[in-house]
Amino acid sequence: MRLTHLRPVNRHLLILPHFKKDKSEDRGFILPDSYEEEEKYISASVIDVAADCSTAVRTLKLQLDGDHKQIVVDRSMIEEFVFKDKKYHMILENYIVGIVCPL
Fold it and tell me: What phi and psi values does residue 66 have, to the nearest 5 degrees?
């Protein structure tokens, strides 16, 4: 079996979003079990970057330290899809609102 990697194109980034799943907080009122409060912006790890992205975004691909490959994105713009039984998350570079950098 041949291993494959999905490479992003057209200014997209292949990411691993950091979704929160904390339902232990007491809100003082009852909500359905299926209700999830979503933050507008979340962090994500960059896995791969399209070659036609801006220079600032392309440099993320070259950085080896995981902390340097973290970005903040608009959660609603993450594209989630399944291809060959594997789930992927991509986002267009326009929806990156920041790059997490050490001080």
Answer: -55, -35
**84, two tokens:** 């060959």
Q: Any idea which residue has 């490959």 for tokens?
A: 69
pLDDT tens-place string over residues 26-74: 556 676 766 666 789 999 999 999 999 999 888 887 775 555 688 999 9
In sign, the C-alpha dihedral spanning 40, 77, 70, 37 is positive
Type of residue found at 94: N
Query: What are the phi and psi torsion angles at 37 (to 5°)?
Result: -80, 120
Amino acid at the residue 12? H
Rounded CA separation 7/32 (Å) = 39
**Composition of the chain by helix, strand, coil, percent to 5:** 15, 35, 50
For 8, phi then psi, to 5°, come to -70, 150
Tokens of residue 72, six digits: 């903040």
